[in-house]
Each structure stands twice: as C-alpha cells, then as structure tokens.
Design goal:
Layout lengths: L2 E5 L9 E11 L5 H15 L5 E9 L4 E8 L2 H9 L3 H8 L3 E12 L7 H17 L7
Antiparallel strand pairs: 1-3, 2-4, 2-5, 3-4
C-alpha cells in the first residue's frame, strides 16, 4: 500500500477556502508497522464519510516505518470533529505508545487549488520538522 490516491468524500463549494492538514508519522519499530497500517485503513474508511471532508490521501512507507496523511476540510471544526469521533479517537490513543515521532502542519488554501500535491505537503512537513528540531529559542535570523 504505497499510496492511496486523493479521494473527494464531499465536493467542496465552488469558492472559498479550505483547511489543509498534512502529517507524518514514524513508528518505533518494524513490528509496529502492520498494526499502524490496519489502524490507518480504519481511519481511511472513516474519512470517506466524514462531514466536512473535501479530500484525503495517504502514503505508507512500511520499510521506512513512515506514514503520511494529507486532507482538506471545510474548516478546523470539521477536522477536529473527525479526530474526536470513533474510530479515529481510539486509534490515536491506541497508537500513541508505538510512535517515534509525529509532525502536523495546517494551512488554508482556496478550494480551487484542490487537490493539494504531495510535493507541497512534504515541503511543508519538512519545514515544520526543521522548525520543531530547532526549537522556539534556537532560531537564528
């Protein structure tokens, strides 16, 4: 399961903005990969019918223990409602001990720019990871 292509659970309106969230997860060991994959598929099934979901895609790199998500939402409220709803809520709790690292990034875009490319999402994730590694007091400018 290298990539699940962009799906559009609910067509966005013809104008306006959408909240995009991209994430990167790394599990601690290869033994954690099958469990993470199975849980990811349950969340994928959930997002397909989530209110306010305008699009989603997943990338799995099992050998590297990396997983990426990319989604677009009507607003942060819709995204947070999805995260609090089962099975996603239980998935977050169940997988927390298996996580080595997690990175999340959010931004707004015009709905006309959907779907977001993986190049853009990975660039933003990389920028966020570098900012997280630097820390708030360590940046130079």
């Amino acid at each position: 399961m290298p990539t699940l292509p962009w799906i559009t659970p609910q067509p966005p309106p013809s104008d306006g903005t959408t909240v995009v969230m991209a994430s990167r997860f790394e599990v601690r060991s290869l033994r954690d990969v099958p469990r993470f994959l199975l849980k990811s598929l349950a969340a994928w099934k959930q997002v397909r019918s989530a209110p306010g979901a305008f699009g989603a895609s997943l990338i799995a790199r099992p050998v590297k223990r990396e997983f990426y998500t990319l989604s677009a939402w009507e607003g942060r409220e819709a995204l947070y409602a999805f995260a609090r709803t089962e099975p996603h809520r239980a998935i977050m709790t169940d997988l927390k001990p298996t996580m080595r690292s997690s990175t999340f990034v959010f931004w707004d875009v015009p709905v006309g720019r959907l779907p977001i490319t993986w190049d853009e999402a990975k660039r933003r994730i990389g920028e966020q990871r570098r900012a997280d590694a630097t820390g708030p007091g360590d940046a130079t400018g």
